[in-house]
Design a protein that fits this description.
133 residues; 4-stranded antiparallel β-sheet; 4 strands; 26% helix; alpha+beta
């Protein structure tokens, strides 16, 4: 079963799990390593709502999750192949960040959003422009 809450390959912090290595796109191993995916905690999947489903539909999966136990803030890195970006909720606002900051800004993603639904259209357009949508 596929979907935003479907079981993933490996959870971070699993016994015996080594953190994945990250290589620059020119490194030979960058072409062959598949990202290690993680499960999204239910509150984060719920907070991201339709965004998780849209990303899952084009095979962008969560590869890292960090969350604040006190404030409910979080950051999730999504990846597919060599394309990755993070979505962060900080004080109730959502931001998209990645290595291609200029391209993200040009796509209208260089600002804060008051809900994940507002991110879906510009994020999907940016991913399509990268050939990843």
């Amino acid at each position: 079963m596929r979907g935003p809450l479907a079981a993933s390959i490996v959870n971070e912090g699993s016994a015996g799990h080594r953190a994945p290595q990250v290589f620059e796109s020119g490194h030979p191993s960058a072409q062959t390593l598949a990202p290690v995916t993680v499960d999204l905690p239910h509150p984060i999947a719920q907070a991201l709502g339709p965004l998780v489903e849209a990303l899952d539909g084009i095979h962008f999966l969560p590869t890292r999750v960090e969350q604040s136990a006190v404030f409910g803030d979080f950051s999730v890195v999504f990846a597919r192949g060599l394309v990755s970006f993070s979505i962060t909720r900080d004080r109730g606002q959502f931001q998209v960040a990645g290595a291609e900051r200029g391209a993200l800004e040009a796509a209208g993603l260089g600002r804060s959003f008051y809900g994940p639904r507002l991110i879906v259209a510009p994020l999907m357009a940016w991913l399509q422009s990268r050939g990843a949508g």
